[in-house]
Write a structure and sequence with these properties.
This protein is an alpha/beta fold and about 280 residues long. It contains 9 helices and 6 strands; from the N terminus they run ααββααααβαβββαα. A hairpin with an 8-residue loop joins strand 4 and strand 5.
């Protein structure tokens, strides 16, 4: 049997870890003195929010409960690590479905209650100006780190999730360095079950680009998820928790990105773990 190439294995593992991480985890020290006029370009698009409703009524509760119960048995069986455990999990899945069905009928909120909660939650979530909220905090954070006045250049922001800032427009406005932000995902979501705990989630991409030559000095994606309460609790007080978690999300993603941009040491990229939306 051929001997394993240890350096090659380590390199392959490192590449797997870095997949999807920042291409430039920090602004090089040599570049920081020549950033010139800094402009913040926020995205002009708004992503469709994620909103996970719970089961509405006993019939929906029964269906979700049955699915969750069956999948729990099957998943537990496959985690057993052998064919016997997997087979047992599959054989027990009808029993899990039955137990889940009974639980779902008892635990599900009425359809009227879910609709009443949704009437508060959905407009509140859709009404959030996510791009502006992140961009405003980004301007404050970059100004604090650099000691410079930061220019807002919304007309140069990314027009779609797969595009970047308009560097030519930014240069025409007298900007030397663009700090770009795009909120790609946001909303309230969680597991597909009867009445699961739900998190406020946000994913935002950040880039720092020189307008003169288009060099990318920093690029990374930051994520937030928090809250962990059931659907009805998000409606309490007219949706106060939504506003609170939105503020936390904006601060968290911005502070994480700006902290990396101006990190004092050339650390490895810190990729936020993906969130299962």
């Amino acid at each position: 049997m051929a001997a394993f190439n240890k350096p090659a294995i380590l390199l392959f593992a490192a590449l797997l870890l870095l997949q999807g991480c920042a291409t430039a985890p920090r602004i090089p020290e040599a570049e920081r003195a020549s950033l010139g006029v800094i402009g913040v370009a926020k995205a002009s698009f708004k992503p469709e929010p994620l909103i996970r409703r719970p089961a509405a009524g006993s019939c929906a509760g029964a269906g979700r409960g049955a699915a969750a119960g069956a999948l729990t048995c099957i998943g537990a069986g496959f985690q057993g690590g052998n064919g016997y455990a997997a087979s047992a999990g599959i054989l027990l899945s009808p029993l899990g479905a039955l137990i889940g069905c009974i639980y779902g009928v008892a635990a599900a909120d009425t359809a009227e209650q879910v609709e009443a909660d949704a009437a508060v939650i959905e407009p509140a979530v859709r009404g959030l100006d996510v791009q502006d909220g992140v961009a405003g905090r980004l301007m404050e954070a970059v100004a604090e780190r650099t000691g410079r006045e930061i220019v807002a250049i919304p007309e140069a922001g990314p027009a779609s999730p797969d595009s970047g800032a308009d560097i030519k427009t930014a240069a025409g406005l007298g900007v030397d360095t663009v700090v770009e932000t795009s909120v790609l995902v946001y909303g309230i979501t969680g597991a597909y079950s009867v009445d699961p705990p739900l998190d406020f989630v946000m994913t935002a991409r950040f880039r720092v680009v020189k307008t003169g030559d288009g060099r990318v000095l920093y690029e990374n994606t930051k994520r937030y998820n928090g809250g962990g309460v059931e659907f009805g609790e998000w409606a309490a007080g007219g949706g106060l928790l939504i506003t609170s978690e939105f503020d936390k999300a904006c601060s968290t993603v911005v502070n994480g990105a700006v902290g990396e941009m101006f990190a004092p040491d050339p650390d490895m990229p810190r990729c936020d773990p993906p969130f299962n939306y």
